[in-house]
Design brief:
about 65% helix, 2 domains, mainly alpha, elongated, about 0% strand
Length: about 100
């Protein structure tokens, strides 16, 4: 097996990828909010059939689940970042970052 060295630009490319993913998520959230704010008022005062209400409720549950996953991932990343900041690794070359139990 050949020893492969990482390109010096690899960390920069990874940072750009993370930034693009972040912007994609922010854009998706913005688009959802804009669409919701535009469409929900159109339904005020309307009586929706039960099957239509059920479809809307199912989709709202899916949206809530996606938001919960996003918040959970954000919390995990925040904990990992706090652990890395407290870790002596990198400053002294000793120690390992400790991940709290879930």
């Amino acid at each position: 097996m050949r020893n492969q060295e990482e390109s010096p630009v690899a960390p920069v490319v990874r940072a750009i990828d993370r930034t693009l993913e972040f912007l994609d998520l922010v854009g998706t959230c913005h688009k959802f909010m804009a669409s919701t704010n535009r469409l929900v008022p159109l339904f005020r005062g309307r009586e929706l059939p039960p099957d239509t209400r059920e479809i809307i409720e199912q989709n709202l549950s899916r949206v809530r689940a996606a938001c919960d996953r996003t918040e959970s991932e954000k919390a995990v990343r925040a904990r990992r970042g706090a652990i890395r900041r407290r870790s002596p690794e990198g400053r002294t070359g000793r120690g390992k970052a400790q991940v709290p139990p879930r």
